[in-house]
Amino acid sequence: MAALALASGKTNAAASNAVLAGINAKDAICLMSMGRTRKSDDHRSAIAELQSAGLIGKSQAQRFQRLLALKNDAQYHSGDVSHARASKGLEWATDLVSAANESLHPS
User: Fold this and answer.
1) 80: exposed, middle or buried (C-beta count within 10 Å: 0-12, 13-18, 19+)?
2) Residue 26's domain is classified under what CATH number?
């Protein structure tokens, strides 16, 4: 959905969908690594939780932090997220989802 929104110029929708995909990927990584995940509105605790979720979580934490920085701009501000930022958010989310898939299906 994020890629479709970005392709049609809907940068806020693209960034918002990317953020949600990243949050879901974080949850999957944490569940596979630690058997649990916390639901919190506090982004710092979500980042810390991912950092403690093994090698995959630690490798994705900075990317997740950058992605969460888009959340407020995409979902709560009246202006549009730039195409470049939305595109970067989609890239980060794609990497997080790939990492989550790797944690679910290790090679």
Assistant:
1) middle
2) 1.20.120
